[in-house]
Amino acid sequence: MAVASSDRGAWNSKLGFILAAAGSAVGLGNIWGFPTKVATEGGAAYLLIYLLCTFLIGFPVMVAELSIGRKSGKNPVGAFKALTTNKFFPLVGLWGVICGVMILSFYTVIAGWAFGYAFEEIFYFLGWQAGADWLTDTGNGFKNALIAAVFMMATIRIISGGVSEGIERATKTMMPLLIGIIVIMTIYVLFQPGAMDGVREYLLPDFSRINPTLIFSAMGQAFFSLSLGMGALITYGSYLNKKENIPQAAAFVTVADVGIAFLAGLLIIPALYVAQAAGIEIFVGDQLASSTNLVFQILPALFHTIGGAVGLILGVVFFLLLSIAALTSTISLLEVPVAYVIDEHNVPRKKAAWGVGLGILVITLVVSFQTSLIGTFDYIFNNLGLPIGGVLICVFIAFVWKTDSALDEMESGFEGVKKSLFGKVWPIFIKFICPAAILYNIISNFI
Ligand code: TRP
């Protein structure tokens, strides 16, 4: 028996989808992951390679995922089943579901840090140091577990209510506010002593720092930040209206995502050098003193030097916005396995959301106490898992479903796509450039 269609859901409006996909893309990857990796792995050289990976590999793959999703109207496993009788590709979808589950398990812990810091700012302002210190201790397993659990519950509640309402509304107000606050802080930071060293590090590439490890990391970051490679956008595409212009929507999401990551870097990299100039120990030699919680140390330090009510308000609002950005991302991560269970195992949405969500929470609790797992999971399921998923999606379109069928799907919403420049170039990327570049990067990283 088919699941009632109301359990699948759809986006309310044209803008709804774009907002939801942008909400999925913009998250901790932009504000925590990207600046951390720029700082530790190559400065402007990293930025440059990241931009190339995003536009040359990420964008074409995003168009591919959305086309598969809208054509099939299914979760990643069901989508491949619907478009081919080949038994291998549904496993690719399943691998995506697994990557999503594992990424969500550690993502929630970091989201919990961000959420906790909103309160840390308040406690700091009130002079309650013990409370503030408790929240800043990213190694405190009990605290991590508690806040992560709250975060997971919020995600489950939204997912169990269906896809559109909450995500669309949250994203619409959050995104402009987040950009606004980052811009204000960036201007403040750029006038502090030491900032220009950071700007130079961020914008003047030292090409000798480009190596296979850097490229591999930047490629993984591009996939993660765009929410690609695990079928999140196949799933979101499955709720997409036939009137929507897929390449245009993908372009908008890509630009919004890159824009926010770029801005976050322009804030955080100079802020590191400002903190360094102010005597806070950020670098040991030319290595960063800490990495996973770097951003969470530097930003509060910044709010505290601004101080007073202004520092308080900026700090609280910033961390709340970051939490909402993380929430619109955890929503997309949970939606994938939930859609899978709804479609493929005929479970009602509410039950699927709570069952899957609480199951993932168990892994999250382990990560809360063992935060070193974050790096390990990030490496396996993000750096490695997502690009592998990306290659297989390209292979699927190139050799099984065919780029022509994908373009046919794009015709609705983008009439004449086949004759357009995009229609001529995109197949070349999907058949040759993207898979070759991804495989080359993965292999040369290991050699
Ligand atoms: N893109 C989000 C970020 O940058 C994280 C994310 C959400 C994600 N959904 C995803 C990553 C799906 C990979 C796959 O924070």
Main traits of this protein?
single chain; 447 residues; 18 helices; 2 strands; globular; binds tryptophan
Give an overview in words:
- The protein has 447 residues and is mainly alpha-helical.
- The chain has a single domain, classed as Orthogonal Bundle (Hydantoin permease).
- It has a two-stranded antiparallel ribbon.
- β1 and β2 form a beta hairpin.
- The chain is globular and about 60 Å long.
- The N terminus is likely disordered.
- Bound molecules: tryptophan.
Summed up, the helix count is 18
What gap, in angstroms, lies between the N and C termini? 50 Å
CATH architecture: Orthogonal Bundle
Strand order of the largest sheet: 1-2
Topology:
Blueprint: H1 14-25, H2 28-41, H3 43-72, H4 76-83, H5 89-126, H6 129-136, H7 141-160, H8 165-190, H9 195-203, H10 212-226, H11 232-237, H12 246-277, E1 283-284, E2 287-288, H13 294-306, H14 308-345, H15 349-369, H16 373-401, H17 403-411, H18 421-446
Helix pairs in contact: 1-8, 1-12, 1-14, 2-3, 2-10, 2-12, 3-4, 3-9, 3-10, 3-12, 3-17, 3-18, 4-5, 5-6, 5-7, 5-13, 5-14, 5-15, 5-16, 7-14, 7-15, 8-12, 8-14, 9-12, 10-16, 10-18, 12-13, 13-14, 14-15, 16-17, 16-18
Tryptophan binds next to helix 1, helix 2, helix 10 and helix 14.
